[in-house]
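Worked example 2:
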Amino acid sequence: MRFIPTRFHGILDYIVGIIFVIAPWVFDFADSSAATWTMVIAGIIVLVQAVCTNYEPGIIKKIPMTSHLMMDFGLGVILALTPWMFNFADEVYVPHVVGGIFSILASLTTHRVPSTSYRTVHPQHDRVRP
C-alpha cells in the first residue's frame, strides 16, 4: 500500500541524507572507519539522488520516481547488511540496520508518480525520452 506522497518523500530524503552523513559523530561510532564511511556514502547517495529526481523537491529532475524508489530499496538492503559485509557488526550495527529498513519501507510505501498538480506544471514528467 503506497500512501506517502512524493513531496513528503523528497523532504525526508534531504533530512535522512543529512542524518546519515552526520550519524557517525552523533551516534558515536566515528572511530570505526568502515562503519563511518558506509553511512556517510549512503547519505551522499541519498542526497545526490534527491537532487536529481524528477519530483517536487528535486532540482535537476533527471531520475524518474520509479527508478528512485528502486534505488532506495537497493540502498536499504545494502546498508542494512553492511555491518556483516564489512565485519564491523561487533562495533556498531543498529544505525545501519535501522537506516536500511527505513529506506526499504519508504521505497515500498511512496507513490510511484508525483501529484497531478506537479505533472501539470512539469509536463516533461510524462514525456518518454529516447
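Residues 6-112 form one domain. DSSP finds five helices and no strands in the chain.
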